[in-house]
Amino acid sequence: MNPIQLLLKNMSLSNFSIRQKLIGLVCLLTLGIITTSCLAFYFSYQDTLAGKKEQIRSVIQSASSQVQLLRQKNSSYEITDDEYQERLHDLIYGTSYAEDGYIYLIQQETRISLHPKRPDLEGTYLENIDNSANIEQMIKGFMQVKLNPDKAHYWLFRWPKPDGGPAIEKLTYAQLVPDSDLIIGTGIYLDDLTPLYTQRALSYVAITLVVLLAALSAALLISKNIVRPIISLSSHMKRLSNEDFDQTIEFTDHKDEIGQMARTLELFREHLIENKRLRHIQEHVQFLERFDPVTRLYNRRSMGESLEREIIRNFESQEKVYFLFIRLDLLRNLTIELGDEQRDQILVETANRLRNLLSLNHRLAKLSEGCFGLMLINKPHDIEIDTLIDSILDSIVQPIQLDHIQVQIVARIGVTSFPEDGDQQFELIGRAEIAAKTARKHEQSWLYFNRIKGQQTEPKMELWQDLSTAMDQDQFYLVFQPLFDLNKNTPLSAETLLRWNHPELGPISPAVFVPLAEKSGLISRLDNWVLNAVAKQCRQWIDQGISFPRVAINLSGISFLRNEFETKIYEIFERYAVPLHYIELELTEGVLIEDLARIQDKLKRVRETGISISIDDFGTGYSSLSRIKNLPVDHIKIDKSFIDDLDTNNQDLKIVQAIILMAQGLHLKVVAEGVETEHQLSILREAKCDIVQGYLLSRPLSVIDYEALLDEDLIIEGE
């Protein structure tokens, strides 16, 4: 870049501050005013000089006409020669204009004939007058008049005034009298115009100063009105960028662009405050998704992820990974008797005691109310599990000093290990919990799951063989559990639940046969059976003229993520001529661990068919609101585990309130499932939950009972 280009770049307006730009604008304004005044004075000077020229020209033309008239009278003998000379003398001597203006008469031989101010020069030739330099200039002028009698002739030369003094520049005009040898001339001394020019110059200077003063005052006022607010708003923006939100934005009352900027900045500040509040809420929710707020330990989700990582890491080597499920007995009873605050003290003290017993290779978490989980990673060979369990139980059983009383807690521990008791984190945790519950049932302090494993699995082995037969023989049937809109206090939709009536064993719980279907590879067939059964039932209702709300269907992620899923569900409901807007799909959080872009595209295509999407059991899996916000879903269902202790567990209440607030901020409807008490319903209503479901309002109903409920126009009691 050459120096000129560099200079031009540095001279760019964007390199100057607004104050500097305004100063430059004022300087240009000042220069413009001064230039305008100077030009006005110059043109005034030219106009004045032109006016004087026109004046002396008019005087000469008038005198020339009168001389010509006298000559005509003389030629026609109306007047004698003497009268002619007398009248000519009177005309020249009697003509005056302005203050000291006069005319004179010169013959073509450049002899002064008549001169009222210098009669001493009459009869004298110009070339014989002293001051020959100026005389030559004057003679040249008269010679031009003789040579070009039809033109107006003006010229300058220096000539002393009649009353004496030095030679002064004089503007002369002369004209040849037609048909004669006479030249009439006159002139004005330029210094006679000086007082007029001075007066006008002073007037222009005064006017220019007044205009400049007014312009500078206005510019200063405008500059102050622009620069000060902009500097202030710039300062506000800088402070806002540093998250200083506790400030008052000025100039919002202005009606100009500054006011618009200030009001926009104020709105931006409010958005930043709201974003900060939502960010804090989201951070709190994210914290609650991974940690227990009371004990500050990992929660069940985080423990599951850690356990899953250890299983993967030790999968090839088959090194053992132990998991201990620690359950505190009678904690709920103590909560009812002592209150939430004392309960939290018990949990914190218990967590601290457990921490003191652990090494770096241990992971401790609070799994649920009164339940802790402990994972042993790379257990040193000199540490016996039994000895560690005894130390844990001895530590927990020690009295805990509360405000005014001492309490003593008893714990039960269930133990599982990888790979003997499972190769999935949920298997190890669930089976350890079963072992802890069994230990309590048998009044034991702790128990290995492998001691009861055979009792748990044998019945399931038999059921695996019956699942396929059950679908072929229609041993399954549907029940419907209504969901209620808390804003309208009326039924909104119904969740379709699958039931199995085994011909020999009787009713089999979905908690038993659904996991079996997943493990045996029959889950897709089971989902297909449900979709066909729902479509068939909807067709029956339509044919019977029964008005029914949306029907929610629980689907496995395996079925949902298949490439042909959209086509298959469309074909099923097309076969029964049932519009898809009647259908809502409930997907568990496990589906969301798939590739986000793939899930987004899949959900979008499904929703385009008219189907709505709900995320089931929210809060127990891998998802988070930060992930769900990018997915095209309609509802999230808060898991029942958060609702069970809603009226007694302050932490569960805070989690539910945070989920509702964040979900509604993302324009998602929130469903609370498992509502079983009036108090829970009241809390959810106060927390602005949208939809509720649970035994308090309705148990799962058969088709006939659900049709009867729809016919009743049931309305839940509002507050």
Quick overview:
By secondary structure, the protein is an alpha/beta fold.
Protein architecture, described:
This protein is α/β, with parallel strands linked by helices and 719 residues long. The protein has four domains: 18-196, Beta-Lactamase, CATH 3.30.450.20; 245-286, no CATH class; 291-451, Alpha-Beta Plaits (2-Layer Sandwich); 460-637, EAL domain (TIM Barrel), CATH 3.20.20. It has 22 helices and 22 strands. The strands form four sheets. It has an eight-stranded mixed barrel, surrounded by four helices. It starts with a helix and ends in a 7-residue tail after the last helix. The model has no long low-confidence stretch (mean pLDDT 83).
Molecular shape: rod-shaped
Average of the residue pLDDT scores = 83
Rg, nearest Å: 55 Å
Q: Total domains, how many? A: 4
Give the amount of beta strand, in percent.
15-25%
Judged by helices, strands and strand pairing, the structural class is alpha/beta
**What is the CA–CA distance across the termini?**
77 Å
CATH class of the largest domain: Alpha Beta
Helix content: 40-55%
Q: Can you tell me the residue ranges where pLDDT is under 50 for at least 5 consecutive residues?
A: none
Strand order of the largest sheet: 14-15-17-18-19-20-21-22
CATH architecture of the largest domain: 2-Layer Sandwich
By DSSP, the count of extended strands is: 22
What do we call the CATH homologous superfamily of the largest domain? PAS domain
Biggest sheet record: 8 strands, mixed, barrel
Task: Predict the CATH topology of the largest domain.
Answer: Beta-Lactamase
Number of helices: 22
